[in-house]
Write a structure and sequence with these properties.
Strand content: under 5%
Radius of gyration: 15 Å
Structural class: mainly alpha
């Protein structure tokens, strides 16, 4: 999936998570915090791809991760989701930067997970059980064949 598709899917996922009240924090949270948090992290799993939008801007981080884990490796797994949640909910960022509202953090988690779910919709799938190499997919999108269809699908999800 392309960066544009991930942005649209993250927006749809943030709206969906808030409306479904997936957690008490999301239910009571500020729409702006949840949506912006989701959009900010929706490209993070592709840090393992130096040619991705995020990878091009953070090559110093992207290249080593790509060499060690490959694209759609650890960053697209339950292990990475758990690590991301642990890091975000630890309060580490709040201690070194600024206080981050908890609804913003929940939005960030939704954004990260939305990326993994969106990549599951492509034929390549994702290794949810990494380091096990099994790939999980529900191949309904093929961005290489129909790049516009990806955006139409993501917009329809909205």
């Amino acid at each position: 999936m392309t960066a544009g598709g991930h942005f649209i899917f993250a927006l749809a996922s943030a709206i969906f998570a808030k409306k479904l009240e997936l957690s008490p924090v999301l239910a009571q949270g500020n729409w702006g915090h949840i949506i912006i948090g989701g959009i900010l992290t929706c490209l993070l799993p592709d840090i393992d791809h130096p040619k991705s939008l995020l990878g091009q801007r953070l090559k110093w981080l992207s290249i080593p991760i790509a060499k060690v884990f490959g694209h759609r490796g650890i960053t697209h797994s339950f292990l990475a989701i758990a690590g991301c949640c642990t890091f975000l909910f630890s309060g580490f960022l709040s201690r070194i930067i600024i206080s981050i509202p908890i609804d913003f953090v929940h939005g960030m988690v939704v954004g990260y997970i939305s990326h993994v779910v969106a990549d599951m919709l492509t034929p390549a799938g994702v290794p949810l059980l990494w380091p096990c190499r099994w790939r999980f997919c529900i191949p309904i999108l093929s961005p290489s064949k129909y790049p516009l269809w990806e955006r139409v699908f993501c917009a329809f999800v909205l």
